[in-house]
Amino acid sequence: MAISSDGAYVFVSNIEAGTFSVIDTASRTVVASHKVGAGPNGISYQVPE
pTM for the whole thing? Predict the structure, then answer.
C-alpha cells in the first residue's frame, strides 16, 4: 500500500487480480483499477518533479 503525498489517494496492489487500485480517501471508494501483470507484490508512490 502507498499513500499520495497529499493523502488524497491510497494505492493498493491486488496480487491475484494482477492489478492495482486507486482509492479516494475522502469517499473511501475505488476510483480506478489498472492491469499491471501477474502477481504485483507491493507498490510505491513517487512525487513527480
Answer: 0.79
